[in-house]
Design goal:
By secondary structure, this protein is mainly alpha-helical. It contains six helices and no strands.
Length: 172
Amino acid sequence: MTNKSRIILALALTLLPSLLAVFFRSIDVHAVLNMISIGGLYFGVTYLLENSTIKRTIYYRLSCFFIAIVIIGVMFKVQHWPYGSEIILTGGVAIVVTYVVRFAKKLQKKFPDYLKLMVVVLLIFGKLLKLYHYYFGNETLMLADLCFILLMFYYLWKEFKNKESVNKNGID
């Protein structure tokens, strides 16, 4: 799968549920739309990981470890075992702290770096707000989706721009 098609698929799967949610008010439909949105997030994140420098750092390993902690917390929560929410909270906050430290140590920060930081922080805290049934969980997740969509549009624009520059130079 090419980079351009992966970005377009991520955008389509992320935007489609938001547009369809306007027309459907059923809770069952929203569950399906959330699953479609997760598919869009998957394609976008795989694109970002393949074209990122984080894979060669300790921050990637730490993030994977903390994601595993969150998954263990989710399994505790599904089984209704004690401390499931606390495990999820610990792993989520650790992911955010790890990414903020990585961002702070990065020497050259560009526009997509700020968007990625916003996506990570808003996504984790939005999920935690929903987990603990606090206000503004859905709104925080919408902001995370908006930042993610902007990030995907930026990379799509960059892919088209690179294709045009290659075609102008006579290379196809």
